[in-house]
Amino acid sequence: MTVRSVTVRVPAKVNVQLAVGGARPDGFHDLANVFLAVGLYDEVTVRPAASLTITCTGPDAEQVPLDRTNLAARAAELLAARHGIAPDVHIHIAKDIPVAGGMAGGSADGAGALLACDTLWGLGSSREELLSICAELGSDVPFSLVGGAALGTGRGERLTELEVGGSFHWVFAVADGGLSTPAVYAEFDRLNEGLSVPAPVASPALLDALRTGDVLALADAVSNDLQPAALSLRPPLADTLAVGAGAGALASLVSGSGPTTAFLVKDEDAAEGVATALRASGTCRAARVAGAPAMGARAVAV
Ligand code: C5P
């Protein structure tokens, strides 16, 4: 049977811990990065075409680059180059993950296109091969493939999968406009200039909370070392965090490099309450409810 198109669904992520070390000689930062996949998804569809092209639909589609800088295009090119074939596919991204929001939306599209092309071209690459291409594409891309929960070390790309003993309810406040990840790391370096930044270590209490599915313990343990940098670049995010906390969120934090803010809540009712308060506050563009953990990239239509 000739495969005509393949669609892969890929989740967003929130970092329940993002411990950041000092800048390395290569410009990256060593991390202890605890990723949790959440139920907001992009869908990436690939089909044979005369040349590599991309289209995108969704609320933020006009902010998505449609050239070779898009991680989905780079994924197709890298995979094709490894197998000596031409990357002649049309890639369509149905985008629901906030763009430049600190939720790994671009990384999700890279992982999704990689898995979709591998299936379309019948390559049957091993998990290890796919993960090594993901790591080449970006620090967060391997996690988009794997999903669930994982500890990322190195620059975040070396993953250890984590056990999660329950489900968690989240609300995400989508900000107007994105934040550049390199700019947030540069602000982290500026804020820490002259200080000795400790080596990043995963919190045992946080890993325990994930393993036991204990939402109160998780709420106590979440942390994000990039939060002061994101707030310094975007001070109004403090207002969004205050609204969520005031509406009963158990924990309120910036998601990754931001500017999306993340609110951990007790249950679905609490999620609706926090989302309603955020929408009414005028401090964000949208509020989205999502469950965790979510599965990693997987084909939903072939
Ligand atoms: O790996 P990725 O391309 O997603 O990284 C984007 C940028 O984020 C890097 O160029 C770097 O400025 C910053 N970064 C970092 N340390 C990491 C991951 C990302 O400084 N561990």
- Give the low-pLDDT segments: none
Write the CATH architecture name of the largest domain: 2-Layer Sandwich
Task: Give the termini distance in whole angstroms.
Answer: 11 Å
The proportion of residues in beta strands is: 25-35%
Portion in helices: 25-40%
Cofactors, ions, other ligands:
cytidine-5'-monophosphate
Q: What sequence of helices (H) and strands (E) makes up the elements?
A: EEEHEHHHEEEHHHEHHEEHEE
* CATH level 1 class label of the largest domain: Alpha Beta
The major sheet is characterized as: 8 strands, mixed
Shape: globular
Structural class: alpha+beta
> How many beta-strand elements?
12
Output the CATH topology of the largest domain.
Answer: Ribosomal Protein S5, domain 2
- Count of runs of 4 or more consecutive helical residues: 10
Tell me, rounded to a whole number, the average pLDDT. Answer: 97
List the defining traits of the structure above.
10 helices, Ribosomal Protein S5, domain 2, four-stranded antiparallel sheet, alpha+beta, binds cytidine-5'-monophosphate, 12 strands, 302 residues, Alpha-Beta Plaits
Question: Could you describe the 3D structure shown?
Answer:
The protein is of the alpha+beta class. It folds into 2 domains: 6-163, Ribosomal Protein S5, domain 2; 168-292, Alpha-Beta Plaits. Helices cover 34% and strands 29% of the residues. The strands form 2 sheets. Strands 1, 2, 3, 4, 5, 6, 8 and 12 form an 8-stranded mixed sheet that branches. Strands 9-10-7-11 form a 4-stranded antiparallel sheet, sandwiched between helices. Strand 9 and strand 10 form a beta hairpin. Helix 1 (71-82) runs parallel beside helix 2, helix 2 (105-120) runs antiparallel to helix 3 (127-137) and helix 5 (181-191) packs across helix 8. It is globular, with a radius of gyration of 19 Å. The relative contact order is 0.20. Bound molecules: cytidine-5'-monophosphate. Residues 27-29, 31, 138-140, 155-156, 181-182, 185 line the site of cytidine-5'-monophosphate. Cytidine-5'-monophosphate (C5P) binds at residues 27-29, 31, 138-140, 155-156, 181-182, 185.
